[in-house]
Specification:
Elements (H helix, E strand, L loop, with lengths): L4 E3 L27 H9 L9 E4 L2 E4 L5 H18 L3 E5 L16 E5 L15 E8 L3 H5 L1 H8 L4 E6 L4 E9 L5 E8 L4 E6 L2 E7 H4 L2
Parallel strand pairs: 1-9, 6-7
Antiparallel strand pairs: 2-3, 4-5, 5-6, 7-8, 8-9, 10-11
Amino acid sequence: MGTVARSSGRANGRARPAGPLPPAIPPFPVRRFTLDEYHRLIRTGFFREDDRVELLNGWIVAKMGTNPAHASALTRTARRLRRLLGDDWIVREQSSLTIPNSDSEPEPDILVARGPEEAYDARHPQPKDTVLLVEIAESSLAEDRGEKLRTYAAARVGVYWVVNLVDRRVEVYTRPRGGRDPGYRHRQDYGPGEAVPVVVAGRELGRLAVEELLP
């Protein structure tokens, strides 16, 4: 994901390296899909209702299963974001983000978008609508720091959180960089005993205690 400036919170004085990234191309014959082709598959009922998939850089990827810890962290984080942000912002859970002019339509665990709600009756939010993305990471930690991070940075989503259940902290990525090597220029970690600033459209609207987000 390129060079990222990392500064840790007070509770953990050292930055930790990201885990290994998944292979960019599987070692067997595969086919990439465009965003339009992916939408056609959805419209024709190709996927079953219980299929949990998303499109990442042309690959139709199976999403990780949800265990109790993941589900609890997702509920805790979404609930507190809704309480803090009120009705001015839309908080969506495990819903699609359409990235135009790309071959990606990921489904972040939490997406915060500009209102009103009616704006998304006939379409999914796009990066221009989106002010914050959150992934709850345990078994998916390498992907959330790797392919997902690069996809969100390339789309210029300004703030990206990884609620890291493995190391019990929240990683906040800001200052996205696009181009051939997309990534975020800055990372700040927050551990137990600290609070994560909720920055929306350049304004801090409040803070969430890390301990309240982690199961």
